[in-house]
Amino acid sequence: TLTTKFLGRTYTSPLMNGAGVRCTTVEELEALRQSSAGSFVTKTATREPRAGNPGHRMSALPYGSINSMGLPNKGLPYYLDYLTSLPDQGANNFLSVAGFSEEDQMAVLETIAASDFAGIVELNLSCPNIPGHPQLAYDFDATDKLLAKVFDRFDNLELGVKLPPFFDPIHFDQIAAVLNKYPIKYANSINSLGNGFFVDPETDAPMIEPKGGFGGIGGGYAKPTALANVRALHERLRDDIALIGTGGVQTGRDVYDLILCGASMVQVATAFGPEGVAVFDRLNGELQSILDSKGYADVTSTVGQLHTV
Ligand code: DHB
């Protein structure tokens, strides 16, 4: 089977969408809910609805994608209404949220805490595309300060963090030291490789319009960095902090590698765009074949089973 345990819940597959792709509307979320994905996460919600950045803002690249969406979303109440209307009040699903200041973040969490939402909150600390707002988790002190406030105020939110990619062992140490101070339930690595750039060979211009062409990179380009971040956090975080692996998943092998490195759920973003929910059927099949051939009975027993050379 592909059974995986996550935050005391049992899922029939570790696969789900990554926040952002095909998860903005109720129609898209319903398609995910009825798919063979084990769970789903919403588009990152902000207090107010947002149109996002203007112009052509997402493109396929030879080995992945570039985007500068700017957090277009229908606003927190829309997602809370949908999730709380589900038979289980969204107990097994993920609500991704972001705020633009500490006050804004806290207000978002207040609204969730006051709702009947029974699921998991994913705090996006890593959107690369909002002019004037850095990827918060690159500022370790600011992240520490925010989490101190969050957990001072809320002690029963089931909350995880979506992290940007880190590229230095010292930075792995630093983010892990901050996260280990708080009762976070999980870390999700990685968000896009922030602020990449690509020249359109047809036009000699940037591939996307917002921010002068700078945008988050996903797809195949992200896989080694995703594996590095999941592995590094698996080695550093408290044992009770679960991991979601995200980045560059195109095949069952990619899913398996993230699981070996420590992920108990795996998200698919770039590949989910063109393939739609059929990607989960395909990846479930490919992953099951690998687990069978390796002799693993389920995903839970495979998590972190990286071999030493
Ligand atoms: C957005 C894009 C991303 O690539 C991301 O990681 C988070 C948010 C966005 O612009 O909406």
TrEMBL record:
Q: Where in the cell is it found?
A: Cytoplasm
Q: What is its EC number?
A: 1.3.98.1
Residues annotated as domain Dihydroorotate dehydrogenase catalytic? 2-291
Q: Does the keyword Membrane apply?
A: no
GO molecular function list = dihydroorotate dehydrogenase (fumarate) activity
What keywords sit in the KW lines?
A: Cytoplasm, Flavoprotein, FMN, Oxidoreductase, Pyrimidine biosynthesis
Its cofactor is: FMN
- Gene Ontology biological-process annotations: 'de novo' pyrimidine nucleobase biosynthetic process; 'de novo' UMP biosynthetic process
Pathway of this protein?
Pyrimidine metabolism; UMP biosynthesis via de novo pathway
UniProt name for this protein: dihydroorotate oxidase (fumarate)
Species of the source: Lacticaseibacillus pantheris DSM 15945 = JCM 12539 = NBRC 106106
